[in-house]
Amino acid sequence: MPGFLLHLGATVLCSHGGQAQPTVVNPRVLVNGQPTVTLATPYVVAGCALPPPPAANGPCVTGQWITAATRILAGGQPVLLQDSQAICAPTGTGLQVVVTQPRVRATSSTSTIRFTSTIRAALPRRTTTTTFAT
Predict the structure, then answer these.
(1) Is residue 29 a part of any domain in this protein?
(2) DSSP labels for 31-73?
(3) Which of 18, 19, 52, 80 could be bridged to 6 by S-S, CB 3.0 to 4.6 A?
(4) Whose CA is closest to 76, among 107, 36, 109, 43?
């Protein structure tokens, strides 16, 4: 499945509305000027609304990604995509990517990265698309 690459500025929420943030980023690969996030990166969750025991098994504290791009790597680790899946602890629910950058997309099955940019010059605007295959 294709998906946009996750970066530090992406909005990621737990299933109960808690804000999730990466603990580590990859500063060597940037999209929209922000570092990317890889599969090995745990997320911390703040503001989860799920009550603690005995009412429920919340709140969500951490999230660990379990799927990512299959052949697109940054620093030797698979990059996270908008459609990547994660599991929160201790609840076992997932993380949801709500907003991410819309310029760099990776397709896991064919290992393609698409980068779309607008060329600004004295001429009218023109959009170019470059595809890199690995």
Answers:
(1) yes
(2) ETTEEE-BTT--EEEE---SPPTTT-S----EEEE----SS-E
(3) 80
(4) 36
